[in-house]
Design brief:
The protein has 2 domains: 124 residues, Urease, subunit C, domain 1; 293 residues, Alpha-Beta Barrel (TIM Barrel), CATH 3.20.20. Helices cover 39% and strands 23% of the residues. It has 16 helices and 16 strands. Strands 5, 6, 7, 8, 9, 10, 11, 12 and 13 form a 9-stranded parallel beta sheet that branches. Strands 3-2-1-4-14-15-16 form a 7-stranded mixed beta sheet. β8, α6 and β9 form a beta-alpha-beta unit. The structure holds guanine and zinc ion. Keywords: Hydrolase, Metal-binding, Zinc. This is Guanine deaminase.
Length: 428
């Protein structure tokens, strides 16, 4: 089965933080993406490509922008039903809203219902892959992976481990965190398009023994990713200092327990010390920027431009439900606004790269997803660049493609997502 998807096709010749973003990106105005058996086999100008694929079924998306599905590198799917909860900072927000909701996931039917609704919501917003925290309950991981297997999406997730500073019903132990994580990893890692991620929530909710147990598990499975939170809010950093008085800094609480490495994903990372920045770069770890969360919970302004220029690997994420949106368009808009507040506005080509190839690279999946190129899995979306009256009147007077795209980044939502293909299969 061969499909030819036609539209304005976005590809990258280079990483748009390493050279001029406009010359790093390429938009083929009448482009084609040829897909066979869920994989991209060719891309280029439609006129020259189509004659080579006379058997292809053509799906003509007109002037819509064809790009890889968005990749959300840090989410909490169990927080779907408490997104947009008012008025708290991180620690109070966790205790007031997050933990009570996460307790519900001991019920497998509840977990499955939320997983299905989360995947439907994010697909409607053009997100084809996420890396999710689950809850303390193994059932919450089974529910998420079962839902992802049914939808055919490439997905990453792990059991959130906590053995202190959380309600009794949400606490495991060093041993049960190790055992449950290992059993889930064995059950799901590498099954279909699924990857297990070792997931200590953050240092305040894990004893040193639990961090060490998960560090040992990671050492046994170094190909797995490990995800956690780092230096999100100043009160949290002071708390970590008091809980780990011997540690050189927040990152050291992970490093000391075998939880720092190239396959490590550190969410937020706003208030980093110079040693932490150097060490993260030295080991090749990835940071994940969660801009709507950082403004919503009042955490601070991530230094995207500075870290990218220094060669740090960074992915982009909603951090649902600390983040206030399911949309990677809204997330790019917030990243742009934070860049503005820091005096370093990001270009549309950089924002779209972060939401696709950049996030894929942060997850170590850049050989599979996040780019339109032969051999890549065909998770694709078509963006309508005139999806609302407000956007259409602005893009109608754009002088070039970037001016036409930027209003959709700043003002677009799920109405802009005209089609989503999962492994080449249209879902809309
Ligand atoms: N730090 C520890 N847990 C969480 C969480 O669920 N959300 C956010 N934003 N930060 C955290
Ligand atoms: Zn988070």
């Amino acid at each position: 089965m061969t499909t030819a998807i036609l539209g304005q096709v976005l590809t990258y010749r280079a990483q748009p933080f390493e050279e001029d973003p406009v010359s790093a990106a390429h938009v083929e105005p009448r482009g084609a993406v040829i897909v066979e058996d869920g994989v991209i086999v060719a891309t280029g100008p439609a006129d020259s490509l189509l004659p080579h694929y006379p058997q292809a079924t053509v799906q003509d998306m007109g002037r819509h922008l064809i790009l890889p599905g968005f990749i959300d590198a840090h989410v909490h799917y169990p927080q779907t039903r408490m997104i947009a909860s008012w008025g708290k900072r991180l620690i109070d927000w966790l205790n007031s809203y997050t933990f009570p909701e996460e307790m519900r996931f001991s019920d497998p039917a509840y977990a499955r219902a939320v997983a299905d609704s989360y995947l439907a919501l994010t697909r409607a917003h053009g997100t084809t892959t996420v890396c999710s925290y689950c809850t303390i309950h193994p059932e919450s991981v089974d529910a998420f992976f079962a839902a992802a297997r049914d939808s055919g999406q490439r997905m990453l997730a792990g059991k959130t481990c906590m053995d202190r500073n959380a309600p009794e019903e949400l606490r495991d132990t060093p041993q049960s965190a190790y055992d449950d994580s290992k059993a889930l990893l064995t059950r799901w890692h590498g099954v279909d398009r699924l990857s297990y991620v070792i997931t200590p929530r953050f240092s305040p909710t894990s004893t040193p023994d639990q961090l060490a147990a998960l560090g040992a598990l990671w050492a046994e499975h170094p190909d797995c990713l490990m995800q956690t939170h780092l230096s999100e809010q100043t009160e949290e950093i002071s708390w970590v200092k008091s809980l780990f008085p011997e540690a050189r800094d927040y990152l050291d609480t992970y490093e000391e327990h075998g939880l720092l490495g190239a396959n490590g994903l550190y969410g937020h990372a706003i208030h980093l010390e110079p040693r932490e920045k150097d060490r993260l770069k030295e080991v090749g770890a990835a940071l994940v920027h969660c801009p709507t969360s950082n403004t919503f919970i009042g955490s601070g302004l991530f230094d995207m431009a500075g870290l990218m220029t220094a060669g740090q690997r960074v992915g982009l994420a909603t951090d649902t439900g600390g983040g206030s949106s399911f949309s990677m368009l809204r997330t790019m808009a917030a990243a742009y606004e934070i860049g503005q507040l820091r005096g370093t506005p990001l270009h549309a080509a950089q924002l779209l790269w972060l939401a696709t190839a950049g996030s894929a690279a942060s997850l170590g999946l850049d050989d599979k997803i996040g780019r339109i190129a032969p051999g890549m899995e065909a998770d694709l979306i078509a963006l309508d660049l005139s999806s609302t009256m407000a956007i259409a009147q602005r893009s109608a007077c754009a002088d070039d493609i970037w001016e036409a795209v930027f209003p959709t980044i700043m003002m677009g939502d799920d109405r802009a997502v005209a089609e989503v293909w999962i492994a080449g299969r249209a879902t809309a």
